[in-house]
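Wait, mind explaining this?

_____
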Amino acid sequence: MSTSNSSVLSSNPRQAYDATRLFLYVAGAVVLGVLIAGFWNYHLVDGFGKDVIAGATIGNTAELAGSYSSHGAAFGFLFAAVAGAAATFTACNCVVFALLPGLACSVEDKRASASPLSVAGWFVAGVLAICGLYGLIVGVLGPSGVEMLNSETIRLTQAQTVFTSLGMLMLGWGLVELGLARGATRHLSEKTRAFFTRPTTKAGLLGIMVGLFAVGRPYPVFRQFLSYAAEAGSPLYGAGVMMVQGAGQIFLMILLFGLLVWLAGRRLGRWAQEKPYQSRLVSGLALLVGGTFFVYYWGLSLTFDIGFWGYRLGWYAGQVPT
């Protein structure tokens, strides 16, 4: 066996683990994703962002939504940062942490010549690009267009469509990482496969996915921020504040990424080089957990009314959402 073939073989979890063990890993990831989605307490996490993060910094965001004429353009950037931070642990953003292993496993991978800074940079660039584009659209739509966009029917349909689609994409990506989707990749050229296995390419794609979180987000604080930004009637202003919002929504993740690299970067690098199949296993399983959460929470539970178990069991305050 050639050295190159040996390297490919050792980086493929499907080749490194027996079928039963790998199946149990996959099943465990899917079950974990369903459990988290089923017992998700959205009142708790949404309320934390609204009352603690936003309430303690800028006040009542519902009252601020239509106050652009009195608060001005500069305040919009603060509103954007707070709206992004407030969404950190919501059901439409928490999956960002499932993407952290994929970034962390790429640090100091000498085979791919990817530094932690370049990986983080491509990730942030992907987030800001999508958020900036969405902000341009918000500016073009203006107050009346965003009011229609914020209506309950449209925002929930938008959320279900975006997050279910992203969840399916994450599930597919997770299977590719685990070496379980060979049929979908074997027809790709060697150069194409090499391109998509680069840590910087993966980071950029992950960033694009996280940027799309803002497109689907139904969170009231975020929607109230959209109303504020739309009042400016400027696509460039909309793009600017939306990029600040995007930075706010990933701030904690980037902070954790930097801390992880600082504390264990070299060890992660050696681990990724010596046992690449393990780093791909961690990355793939994390994608499966996150993808399952999205598909179950935003797709299945809302469509077929089979979620919100904590509310149904009486563990959480409030009624089962309808």
